[in-house]
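User: Please fill in residues for this 367-position structure.
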């Protein structure tokens, strides 16, 4: 049986099970007996059932009100759901303990997931349990008892230098170069870039209409001269495709550039650079050039300035220059003070010498 069919069957089974007209036996039983049977079955439901039920709800529901449906990163949630189901599988929901959840989190760390990714797993599990509570399978959400990891250490200050950018562009494959150009000149997220269609590019007004955003809000980004030339060149190569960035092997839109980006960084000798760091670079460069933080916020599509501050870290050289400005001012003031002090002493000495001369003259003068 196909995976999708199993999801739908479980979904239909749930509807049938909870229907008010459901009869437990042919002989018939009273309402309290039927309710007790349904409650008993619900209390013995295993994790896999909730997993399949959620996926089927995501497929069939038009309300878009459960966990993943309204989110742009549906595939990421689906992958994490599968990992959760793989771990808990036949465990009854009511027998899952905080210790079991902590062990699951430890298994994700062992699998080299970051602490922030582990937090995403727990956030998803929390929503699953909320779903189960709403449907009458649970009374308590155990995830609330577990403290999430701090993500402060994950906010890396990795900014691409202009020299590194030159090397990266030179060593990148032809299909990767225009993607990098869009990232560095607009600050768009990878998902937003790969989802771009030509009808979102307005060559006459030189603007990009970003639609598939994390916040769900449409935003407009101006196209500078460097990017304009790159887009014109890209359009001249392919005048038929709906999307800007197509997989030449499948003819479908690209879904990732992980391999190409990693290979380009290796050839260019650039270490510890993620694609998302190009977004950090865009924001930081704007701030470096004196652009106000509100404008940077709007270009990056953030809801608050606080989020934007993560993308406006000064680089190390800027920090050194900033501190040196204080130092040079201090040195300048110190030199002035020293000069004034010496000058004052010299004036006093001159005044004292002149006074002595006058006294001598007065002493030896003849009336």
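Assistant: Residues filled in for all 367 positions:
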């Amino acid at each position: 049986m196909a995976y999708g069919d199993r999801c739908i069957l479980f979904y239909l089974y749930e509807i049938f099970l909870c229907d008010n007209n459901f009869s437990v036996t042919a002989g018939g039983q009273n309402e309290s007996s039927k309710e007790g049977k349904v409650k008993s079955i619900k209390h013995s439901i295993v994790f896999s059932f909730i997993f399949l039920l959620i996926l089927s709800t995501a497929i069939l529901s038009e309300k878009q009100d459960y966990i993943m449906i309204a989110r742009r990163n549906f595939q990421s949630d689906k992958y994490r759901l599968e990992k959760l189901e793989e771990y808990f599988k036949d465990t009854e929901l009511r027998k899952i303990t905080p210790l079991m959840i902590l062990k699951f989190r430890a298994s994700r760390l062992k699998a080299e997931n970051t602490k922030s990714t582990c937090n995403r797993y727990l956030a998803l599990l929390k929503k699953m349990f909320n779903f189960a509570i709403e449907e009458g399978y649970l009374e308590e959400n155990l995830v609330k008892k577990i403290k999430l990891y701090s993500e402060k250490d994950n906010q890396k200050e990795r900014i691409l230098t202009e020299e590194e950018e030159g090397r990266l562009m030179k060593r990148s494959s032809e299909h990767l170069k225009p993607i990098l150009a869009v990232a560095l000149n607009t600050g768009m997220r990878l998902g937003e870039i790969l989802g771009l269609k030509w009808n979102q590019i307005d060559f006459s007004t030189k603007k990009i209409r970003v639609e598939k955003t994390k916040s769900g809000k449409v935003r407009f980004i101006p196209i500078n001269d460097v990017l304009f030339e790159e887009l014109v060149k890209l359009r001249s190569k392919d005048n038929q495709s709906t999307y800007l960035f197509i997989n030449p092997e499948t003819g479908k839109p690209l879904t990732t550039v992980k391999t190409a980006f990693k290979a380009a960084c290796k050839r260019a000798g650039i270490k510890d650079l993620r694609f998302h760091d190009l977004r950090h670079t865009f924001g930081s460069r704007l701030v470096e050039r004196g652009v106000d933080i509100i404008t940077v916020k709007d270009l990056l599509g953030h809801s608050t300035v606080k989020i934007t501050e993560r993308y406006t870290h000064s680089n190390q050289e800027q920090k050194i220059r900033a501190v040196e400005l204080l130092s040079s001012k201090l040195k300048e003031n110190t030199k002035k003070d020293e000069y004034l002090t010496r000058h004052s002493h010299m004036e006093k000495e001159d005044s004292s010498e002149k006074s002595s001369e006058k006294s001598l003259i007065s002493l030896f003068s003849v009336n």
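For context: The chain has two domains: 3-153, 162-313.
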